[in-house]
Amino acid sequence: MVKGQGTLIRRGPGEIEMTDQTGRTSDAQAEGDGYMLYHSIGQYPGKARDMAASLTAFAECWGAANDEQWGYALGQRQRFIDLWSQLLNAPSASLTTTENVTSALAALIMALPREDLEGRVVLVAGDCFPSLHFLLTGLADRYGFTLRTVPLRDGAHWVEDEDVITAWGPEVGLALLTWVSSTSSHRCVLEALVAHGRKQGSLIGVDITQAAGLFDYDCMAVAADFAISTSLKWMCGSPGGGILQVMPDVIARCQPSLRGWFSQDNIFSWDINAFAYAPDIRRFDNGTPSVMACVATVPALEWHAAQDWGAQLAKNRSLSEAIIAASDAAGFELASPRDPAQRGGSVMVRLTDADHAQTLLSKLRDVSVFADARGPILRCSPGFMTTRAGIDRLASVLTGG
Questions:
Q1: Domain assignment of residue 113, given as a range
Q2: 209 and 172 in a common domain
Q3: Is residue 269 located within the same domain as residue 354?
Q4: What is the rounded distance in angstroms from the CA atom of residue 153 to the CA atom of residue 163?
Q5: What CATH number is given to the structural domain containing 19?
Q6: Are residues 298 and 323 in the same domain?
Q7: How confident is residue 29, by pLDDT bands cut at 50, 70 and 90?
Q8: Is residue 52 part of a domain?
Q9: 159 and 223 co-located in one domain
Q10: 62 in any annotated domain
Q11: Would you say 177 and 186 are in contact if contact means Cβ atoms under 8 Å apart?
């Protein structure tokens, strides 16, 4: 893509067209123009082709009768780590692979010194990713902490930052912040929350899943203690491609419970009585690492690295405003912040009930518009392939046209 000039859209074999940063095209049925599931699975032009080529190259290497397999496989994993580290401006050797955000959070908690959590509070917002809450609920008794969940106000769709701050005192050993909520697209003000947490002496983690790949996250600027994410959503990668990023001073205090030969500085040190953790993020590795998700995701990460993110974000903002306008015209309640400074890349709309949502989704599929719903909440995330033509079809269905 030429920076600042728009987005390439693949329409079929040998057919490419360019959209401007508002998402307008000359054809109302460009491939993917109605795709709005970037809060779930991200797509970009040529993704299937790129992923197939990467997996085929891996298969050809792995299936060859020679000794080149591990160098290639681990090289692809390292490429994945390097691209994610570059994206997040992560300190050297502070980021590793995980299966998902839940396993990343579990690995961090199970590695902390016991005194960091025992007898203290773990703080989380009530609109966090439910899987993480399930995990924390199960770990509370085992690790001796009290889980404090900041509730939503009556009738609200997201937890207010000021309510998180009110619930956050010096008794909080660890706070997990959700940068962008998957249920409302509310975007918290990380700078203010992290600054407050530093005054309380808490360990601070950030789930960046619903924002990474659309908004800049700079590990050094945010200065949280750790970050977790997946390569799905706006990152456009594969399932299984999770990441755990931990700041070096925290790594030095961690002793992961799940450990193995890849947790060592020298993975070929096979003296069973002389185990020692690697000095960096590698101590969070364990047995032979899974590489397939890395192989499948590297093309998406390379595509990301080549984009003009100012243009991509401007396009998302323009299309999101059009969705909000259509929702208003249809008389539905907006379940996301109206202020773009407080909103992630998605727009949530409250419909009549869950049945209404499913009926509307069926009508949208009929016109090649793809979104989803959580109960009565319709979730729309216009992304890299979405165009204004797709938004217009969404608006027509919403307004009953």
A1: 68-304
A2: yes
A3: no
A4: 9
A5: 3.90.1150.10
A6: no
A7: low
A8: no
A9: yes
A10: no
A11: no
The tokens for 108 are 């961090």
Whole-angstrom Cα distance, residue 354 to residue 363? 14
Last residue of a domain, one of 304, 319, 338: 304
**Residue 103 shares a structural domain with residue 35:** no
Please state at what angle helix 101-109 crosses helix 130-143, rounded to 10 degrees: 20
Using CA atoms, how far residue 34 sits from 133, 231, 293, 366, in Å, is 32, 22, 27, 11
Of 304, 337, 356, the last residue of a domain is 304
Domain count, the chain: 2
Q: What totals of helices (H) and strands (E) does the chain contain, helices first?
A: 12, 13
Angle 69-88/292-305 helices, nearest 10 degrees?
40
Per-residue model confidence as pLDDT tens digits over 259-300: 999 999 999 999 999 999 999 999 999 999 999 999 999 999
The string of DSSP codes covering 158-181 is: S--HHHHHHT--TTEEEEEEESB-
Same domain, 74 and 141: yes
Residue 117 included in any domain: yes
In a domain? residue 61:
no
Three-class secondary structure of residue 282 per DSSP: helix
Residue 243: count other Cβ atoms within 10 Å of its Cβ: 27
For 373, phi then psi, to 5°, come to -145, 150
Complete DSSP assignment for 37-80: BTTT----TTHHHHHHHHHHHHHHHHTSSSS-HHHHHHHHHHHH
Query: Do 120 and 210 belong together in one domain?
Result: yes
pTM above 0.90, yes or no: yes
Using alpha carbons only, how large is the chain's radius of gyration in Å?
Answer: 22
Note whether 322 and 340 are within 8 A (CB). no
Residue type, 350: R
Average pLDDT over residues 117-122: 98
**142: exposed, middle or buried (Cβ count in 10 Å: 0-12, 13-18, 19+):** exposed
Compute the CA torsion angle 280, 306, 337, 174 (nearest 10 deg): 0
The 3-state DSSP class for residue 308 equals coil
